[in-house]
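Hi R.,

As promised on Friday, here is the backbone we talked about, encoded as C-alpha cells. Could you run it through your design pipeline when you get a chance and send me back a sequence?
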C-alpha cells in the first residue's frame, strides 16, 4: 500500500469514527436483530464502499457513500433561505456621521487642532459632503440587491497590489491535539483537514449547510421544530418572520467565495472568479482519483 493511500485511509477512518458517534447507520452490539440484518444487507450490496474500523470496534462499519460522511451538515432548509429577505444596510445621515467624527476627535486632539478640524468638517458638510452623499444615495437605490458598502469593501482588497496573505487575510494556527494518535502526526491532521474542507464545500455547493443565524435563546429555537417551521416560510418574508422567534439571520452573500475561488488580476484591479469543481458526487471517488 502506497504512503498516500495509507494516509488517506487513516484520515477517512478518523473522520468516519467521528461521524459514527451521531450516525444512525452505525451498527452496535445492542441493535435489534432486524436492524443488524438490514445493515448486513446494505453491506453486501455495497461492499466496496466499506472501511474497516479500529480493532476495538471491528463490528462497527459505515458506508463511505452515506450522507453522514459525504456532507458536513444536512440542513432541512436551503442555505440561502433568508438571503432574499434580509434588510439592507441603511446609509447613516451625513450630519450624524460628522457629529460622531468630531466627538471622537475632540477626545484626541488639542483645543487648537480640534477647532481647525471642526472648521474643515463644517465646510465639508455644507459643500462637497452633500454632493457625495447624493451620489451615494443614488448608487444605493440603483443596486438594491446588495449593500452600499459591498463595492468599496471588495475594491479595498482587489485593487491593493500588496500580498493578500500578509496584508489582508488573517492567519490560522492549530493548537496541539490532545489525542495521542494526532499529537505528533502532522500529515494525518492535514489529511483530516482536507477531508473536512471537501465535506464543507460539497455541503455548501448542494445548499445543505445550515444558514448562519443568531439564536437569542438557542435552547428553544436551535431545534428541528424551528427549522421545520422555516421550511414553510416564504423566502421574501422569512427573515422578519424569524424575528418573531428571536432568531436573527446573518448575511451569507460572501459564503460562495470561501472555496474554489480565485482572484484574476487586470490592469487596474482584480475580479473574483468561481473555479470549476469536479462533478463527481462521491467524496471517496474524488479523493481516490485525485491523490491516489
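Update: got your reply. Pasting your designed sequence below so it's all in one thread:
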Amino acid at each position: 500500500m502506497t504512503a498516500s493511500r495509507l494516509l488517506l485511509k487513516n484520515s477517512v477512518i478518523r473522520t468516519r469514527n467521528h461521524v459514527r458517534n451521531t450516525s444512525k447507520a452505525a451498527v452496535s452490539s445492542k441493535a435489534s436483530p432486524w436492524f443488524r440484518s438490514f445493515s448486513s444487507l446494505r453491506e453486501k450490496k455495497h461492499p466496496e464502499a466499506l472501511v474497516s474500523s479500529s480493532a476495538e470496534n471491528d463490528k462497527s462499519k459505515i458506508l463511505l457513500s452515506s450522507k453522514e460522511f459525504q456532507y458536513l451538515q444536512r440542513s432541512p432548509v436551503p442555505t440561502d433561505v433568508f438571503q432574499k429577505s434580509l434588510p439592507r444596510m441603511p446609509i447613516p445621515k451625513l450630519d450624524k456621521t460628522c457629529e460622531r467624527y468630531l466627538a471622537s476627535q475632540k477626545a484626541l486632539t488639542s483645543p487648537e487642532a480640534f477647532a481647525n478640524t471642526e472648521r474643515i468638517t463644517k465646510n465639508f458638510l455644507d459643500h462637497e459632503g452633500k454632493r457625495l452623499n447624493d451620489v451615494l444615495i443614488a448608487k444605493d437605490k440603483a443596486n438594491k440587491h446588495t449593500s452600499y458598502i459591498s463595492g468599496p469593501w471588495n475594491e479595498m482588497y482587489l485593487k491593493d497590489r500588496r500580498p493578500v496573505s500578509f496584508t489582508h487575510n488573517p492567519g490560522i494556527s492549530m493548537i496541539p491535539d490532545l489525542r495521542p494518535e494526532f499529537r505528533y502526526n502532522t500529515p494525518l491532521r492535514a489529511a483530516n483537514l482536507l477531508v473536512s474542507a471537501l465535506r464543507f464545500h460539497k455541503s455548501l455547493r448542494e445548499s445543505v449547510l445550515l444558514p448562519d443565524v443568531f439564536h437569542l435563546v438557542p435552547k428553544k429555537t436551535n431545534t428541528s421544530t424551528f427549522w421545520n417551521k422555516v421550511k414553510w416560510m416564504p423566502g421574501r418574508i422569512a427573515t422578519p418572520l424569524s424575528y418573531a422567534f428571536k432568531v436573527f439571520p446573518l448575511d451569507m452573500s460572501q459564503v460562495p467565495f470561501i472555496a474554489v475561488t480565485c482572484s484574476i488580476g487586470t490592469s487596474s484591479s482584480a475580479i473574483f472568479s468561481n473555479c470549476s469543481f469536479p462533478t463527481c458526487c462521491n467524496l471517496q471517488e474524488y479523493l481516490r482519483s485525485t491523490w491516489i
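One thing I noticed while checking it: The first strand starts at residue 213 and ends at 215.

Thanks again,
M.
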